[in-house]
Structure formats: C-alpha cells, structure tokens
Amino acid sequence: MQIRSPEFKQNARIALTDVGLQKALGNVKTGFPDKRAKAVARMPEFDALRDQARDLKNHILQHLDLYLEIFEANVIKQGGQVHWCRTAEDARQTILRLCQEAGAKTVTKGKSMVSEEINLNAHLEAHGIQPVETDLGEYILQLRGDHPSHIIAPAIHLNLEDVSETFHQHHHKPKSMDAAVLMQEARETLREKFVVADVGITGANFLVAETGSTLIVTNEGNGDLTQTLPKTHIVVSSIEKVVPTLEDMSLFLRLLARSATGQEFTVYNTLSSGTKRLGDQDGPEAFHVVLVDNGRSDMLGGELQEMLRCIRCAACMNHCPVYGAIGGHAYGWVYPGPMGSVLTPQMIGIEQAALLPNASTFCGKCEEVCPVRIPLPKLMRHWRKNEFERHLTPQAARWGLGIWAFFAKRPSLYRLLSRISNLSLRSLAGKKQRIEKLPFGQAWTQMRDMPAPSGKTFMQQWQARNKTGHNS
Amino acid sequence: MSRADIFASIQRGLGRRQASAAERAAVEQRLNAKAPNLIPARGQLSGEALQQLFISMAQEASAEIIELTRIQEVPQAAALWLQEKGIEELVLASDPELQALDWSSTQGVLRREGVAQAGDLASLTLAFAGIAETGTLMLYSHPDSPTSLNFLPDNHLLILRRVDLVGVYEEAWNKLRTQVGENWPRTVNMITGPSRSADIEQKLQMGAHGPRRLVIFLID
Ligand code: SF4
User: Fold this and answer.
1) CATH number at residue A289
2) Could you tell me the strand order of the sheet in which A286-292 lies?
3) The LUD domain covers which part of the protein (chain B) (predicted)?
4) Using one digit for the tens of pLDDT, what is the confidence trace for A390-403?
5) What is the pTM of this model?
C-alpha cells in the first residue's frame, strides 16, 4: 500500500468534504460506541478483566522470547513450521516462497491486517499468484482496488451504492440495492474460490504457546473455509500476539468482541494446531506460521512498549472524534485512528508519519475504552516530543492550528469536546494563548461554504451521539 | 538469520541476554498451572439455571434450539425441520452415535456421510460441549468429525447433550484436555450462532460464508 501519511492534512481536508464518505462514517459513530456500551454494561467484571488483561500482556512482553520459543516448539510438535521474519520484505518473500513450493495459482485469504502491513497481495500478484480476499469487506475492496479504512470493518468508508455498483461490474448480474442480495452474490462467487484454492492464508488474533495453536476470530466463517479446504494453511501474524495458555486467551476473548463490535462473542473462534491428523477426512496437509517482527521488538523496553499490548479491537478508532470525522484512509497507511497514530510512525518512520500523532484532540476517549488500557494519548505525545527533538515541529504546529479550525467549524462537536475536557482542547494547538487568538467568527462563516449534505450529516450524527454519548 | 535477529532484538529491548532462572520458572509455572483468570459470575451456574443461560444466549446469537429427550428422537425432529425448509438431503459426520440412529420412520431425507462439498444444504454433527456464558458450541476435528461440515453446508444441525453443558470457556478447555490427552486436534471450533456480516454499511446480514442457520438439538 502506497504511503500517503505525509499528505495527512490534505487527505483530511478532502475527507471532510467528501459527501459519500461522511455519510458512510455516520455508521461508525452511531453503531459501534452504543453497541460496546451495552455489552460492557452487561459484564460487571469488565473493568477488572481489563486490569488483568493489561497485567497479563505486560507479563507476556517481559517474557516474550520465552513464550515465543515455547510456541515454536509446540507448533513443530503439532506438525507445523514457524518462519521468523524481521522485516515486511522478509515476510513477503517467505510467503511467496511457501506458495510457490505449494505450486499455488490461487490463494484464498482470510482477513489479516499484518498481510496489509507487509503489502502481501501486490507481491503475490507480481509473481503470478492470485490472492482472493474472502472477508466480505475485503472482497469488496479488492474488486475496487481499494484498501481497508478500518481494522475490523474494512469497507466502512463505502455506502451500499458503491458496493452495488462494484458487484454489478464484476458479477455481471442485475444491479441490486439489497445488501442481502449482494452478500449472496459474494457468497456464491467465493464458494468456488474456496474449493479450488491451493493455499489458504489467514491472520491470527492470538498464538497460544501451550498448544502451539493460532486463533482466528470471524463472524462470516470465511477464515474457516480458507484454512480448512486447501492443502496448505499459512498463518501470517506478529510476535506480540503470543499468549501463554488457553485460559489466558479466554481472558482476552472476553474483552475482544465486546470492545470491537459489542457482541457477547464473535460467531467463530477457531483454534488451529498443525496439520490434519492421521485419519482426519479434511484439513490442511501443511501448516506454516509466518511470524512478523517489522519494528515490534524495537518497541520493547522503550516508551512505546505499552502499544504492544494492543489486541486490534478497534475501539479506539470507533470512539475517536478525529477518525469519525475523516475516516481511516486520511491517515495514509494501514493502521488508522489512535492506535495507528502510534504504530505507523514506528513502522514507516516518523519522518513520513510526523503529522499523525497530532491527529488527536487529546480528549482521552481512546484510552478510556481500550481493553488493555494503552495510554494512547501519552504515546502520541511521545512522538510529538520526538518530532520536536528532530526539529519537525513547525510543520506539526501548523497542523495543530489546522485541526483546530476544523473543530471550530463544528460547534456541536466543539461543545462535546469542551465538555469532555477543556484542557485537551487547549492541547490542540499546543499553547493556550494561540487558541484564544484564533478567529472563531471566520471559521464559523467558512462553514457556510461547506457542502450542505456533509455538514448536515455530520452534525446530525454528532447530535445523536451527544444524546447517548456516555459509553464506558 | 531473522530468527536470531528477532530474539536478539527482543532481548536487547528487555535489557538482558538469556532469561534468568527466575523468569524461566515464572513462565513454566504459568504454563503448567493453566490457572483461570477472573471468571465472570454470569457463567458460574449449574443445573437448570445453566441450561437456561445457554439457551437464552444461543438464541440471542440467532441459533435455533430444539429441546428433545433422547438422541433417538433426532431423526424425526431433523427430518421435520428439513422438510419445513424444503431440504431433502443431509450430510452426517461419520460418528458411530450418528450411524446408530434409526431413520426408518422418516421420509425423504437423502443421507450421506463424510466431508462437506460446496452446494451441500445441511449437515448433522455432534457438539463436544456447550458453553453457557455466551451460548457457544465447541467442536473439534477428529476422523469422525470433519471440520468442513461445520462451515460449507447452508444449514448446520447439531446434537448437544445436556450433560455436556458447562458454564464458561475455561471448563470447556479442561473438558477438551481430558478428552484428547496428548492427541490435541488440528481444529477446535467455538461457534456462537450462524454466520453473519455487517460489512455493508454496518447492517447485519445473516449467512455470509458459513451456515445461514444453526440448529441445536438439546438432548439428555
Ligand atoms: S489500542 Fe486498544 S482500543 Fe485501540 S485497537 Fe488496540 S486494543 Fe483496541
């Protein structure tokens, strides 16, 4: 995926006036936070589970080499192999080689953000192997030559009209505006792909040291078909995902679905351990776990270590006013929202991603909802300090003013944020005095020039959100 | 090379070379103890209350529950359910308990045994456990229980014994450890309701890639 993070300001400006995007983003703001709040309310122990999850992740990180060694030994014991990849390039090459060794022409894929991170699809295609995304959202994006804008709801930036048009073009069927019909089309088309694929590639939400297993979490069942039917199953995942035991995995699972979609439990939680056993009638004959580092081990022992606790639930972006206003693509790389603003500079370099840690109102909502209690605002401040030290500040400060202007144009959002914290608003521009000197009146008049539909939708949604906006 | 680099980098970050004896002991202790973490009160039930929790959570996840007494009643109940849906064929797991079922009093259900094929309309399998806290079923792969039966057919019918109901995930893991011993299975499925997706405008649609319907025959 092409890096567009340096153009963050411009991306954000375009996103704010993109009528279709603003309409689609309404689905984030009205859906996820309420669902999470309801699920959390049904689990009185939720905060205690979060404390345990934070502590357990810290324990794991302190013993990461040991747990990874045990995980590897147990994968081998179950008939699988582990491939260690220090960089994204190593991982691309390794997976390509494994696919070539399996004689693969088509590869089905379950949803995997690590595979986006290493830009796997383009690499396979360049070498004559056709990757087929099977998660409905990812499938839609692949047909459109597009990329995920959200880590669990990849096509959240699209509307029904977009999907309808795309499927009409690719499926050669009458155009439908019924989401159920569209999903049915995808189901039928992909069924054929599942059956003929030579290799299935999935990600993993957790790696269990005790049993040498990988776990995927899906609602669709696509990951399961991906990893059950082909002869070879390749898991691509990252080193911080290891957990000691099944009990420990269960702790995280109780937090993951509730934080992510507000479900009590995701439909399919599937544990894979090695190859098919003697006498098994189906299942893969080869099992490979490709473990990607790509900058993660360098975060250990430093100020960013806490970011390695992330379980990729997306709660931080679902509750982020900046993400809600501009969507995921504006961030310009794979991981958007608050977690992305911390991770992206680590993975693509702070020079390229310098603007992202400023894409925050420092309202603190992300930290408030994070199931593993990652202090995201603090980690973003770490990058800002780092920028300052590297003399990247002037640009960043200019952005600070820019983002203030954008919030000033939205009085209801402004009011919401004021209520949350006056202090965090001040930090928008870095210095208190500057905010007070900003031309409020002018910003207000500029709003009249904004396209009405986008402004209206945005306002309506925030107003609706204000009524129910208490969800932790 | 990469492996050594990664481990060196991790150890550099942790500010040590090889882990100390104490660190190794802590890890071994955790792996051996397999101690539960905090277990929510919700699932700590027994008897009727446990069963009711399982049923209500499974139904909330859009699973259908059909309560029966004996496994011998399954063919009738399954045939009736299939008939209502206009389905005439059923793929069964090659489990001796399923093979022993008597279908002679049912009509019009074409049965086959083995793995699922694309286009299969319905499967019948045995669940290993039911987990009340979220209405979740646990199944694991073995020669009599191919995983494809749980995902390819349009409708998944399962038999679950009331005695196999447990409160929480941790109990199910222990039950599985006891059952399989050293022979850990390739796949363990935890299934909570039928397949779904909200990828189009965040509006939930049932039946994405896996079964559109999940039917649980609860027996004694
Ligand atoms: S940072 Fe926290 S809230 Fe955000 S995705 Fe990671 S675990 Fe979830």
Assistant:
1) 3.40.50.10420
2) A81-85, A286-292, A232-238, A199-202, A106-109, A130-133
3) 58-219
4) 765 545 444 554 55
5) 0.89
